[in-house]
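Incident log entry.

Two folding requests arrived from the same account within the same minute. Monitoring flagged them as a possible duplicate submission, but the sequences differ. Recording both here for audit purposes.

Request one:
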Amino acid sequence: MTAVDDAPIAVDEVPTLTVTLRIRRMNPEGNADHAPGEDYWEEFQVEAHATDRLLDALHKVKWEQDGTLAFRRSCAHGVCGSDAMRINARNRLACKTLLKDLNPAKPILVEPIAGLPVEKDLIVDMEPFFASYRQIMPFLMTSGPTPERERLQTPAQRERFEDTTKCIMCAACTTACPVFWTDGQYFGPQAIIGAHRFIFDSRDEGQWDRLEILNDTAGVWKCRTTFNCTEACPRGIEVTKAISEVKRALNTGKI
């Protein structure tokens, strides 16, 4: 075993820095300087540690400077997916993004995710996103009597859809898709990988019903393989690969 003599860094010795957050805001009720529904940018200076996340900086703004700033957050550990937002022109989770990785020497741009109606500041209406997810019937479909024990499958069978089970439904992939921004009917990448998770599950019997839905004009053929979705996924899911596997199943008639 190699001995390590480096003493741990005390909390008060962690380097601090001043960062500028440039936040895109909208108040549906308006305020003294802006009309109802008007988009505008507002800057805030925040003293932070180099190890802080963007979510920590947003908390400092809300709790110490402007309590009207609106954004979603819950678990703060990259599990719930509620704090997806556009940070320096890229979809990320605020709780998984360190300030030191955002070039804090320049203003950090923070915007709501694109393609969904903005309700206030960084909060968007997620209903269109969830409506697409519901259309692909995201539940196990089986026939026959309910077994007394769990339905078994081999490791190889599980491996076929393992990657898409990691989805936390943060909408980062769907709202990074340029087709989704411009086409109000497209299901979007998340709904397709949500279907992938069941289409390739050996226990499921509704795969062809889902494939028929995705073969629709609003479905999988609208994907232009730009890879924005794969780059945006905070869970590292190979979204574009999963979409191509769905396309292949439709082309070959084989799962």
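Request two (distinct sequence, not a duplicate):
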Amino acid sequence: MKQKTHSARAMGALSATALLALTACGNGDGGDGDGGDGEELTIALFGEEPYSWIDEETGEPTGATIAVAEEIFENRLGYDITIEEEPDWDNLIPGLAAGHWDVVSAGMSITEDRCAEAAFGEPELVYTTAFLVEEGNPTDIETFEDLQDAGLDVVALSGAVESGWMEEEGIDHETVGSADDGIDFVEGGRADVFALTAISLETMAGDMEGLEVTDSFAHELSVGAHAFLPDDEDLIEEFNAELDELMESGEYLGLVEEFGFTEDEMPPSGLTAQELCEEDPQELTEEYLED
């Protein structure tokens, strides 16, 4: 096992255009299919608990997806990994395409649109949605349908699945660049509702005075995974082989349960990244969520 050489450094928010124009800092070609053997690998995280973030006390990367990335890329495959924070969700995939990092470890949901720009490892964590609202939930909102014509100021993370779903449902909303910003909007009275992954809201704002996280709900099957450059087929194959072993042995759950994930968040048996990229989301929802 290699000695850890993690370095976490905050990167300023950059536009997608700016990211594409900058010189790459990832190794740009991923793995060669023969294991890391000390090869450098740069991984991007996004500051959203409990998936991946920088611990304020230690300054080290942490979170469920980081634990999985360290176990597979570093401990099992022998890569020399560097983990960097990208504070703007919208920059994660452009930064991958620009070669700033080789892998995104942020629990990113696999969607058709994202699959046009990145490749995904096999499914890892199933998500549900919730709302951050004023304590007592005075407008009694529980689902996206409740937001339609409600006249509320709603925010969602830019580029997140919740924003896309609300666009499909015709729900007016603004977007923010980070989960912290969304929480600040509701806490400061600039928004009535912040829509985000339920486990993130519970972890980041569940005990905040004057605020409340509504009960979680599944609008559509949403499953997160690690994201890669499409050309890094060997690296993806290496990763998926180790991921499969972790899932089959139950070690995967052991890695992520420290961060609040349970058997309920494990992906349905047989579900693949290819299905999530190519098939109708509603049909997948009916097939797997009602299974």
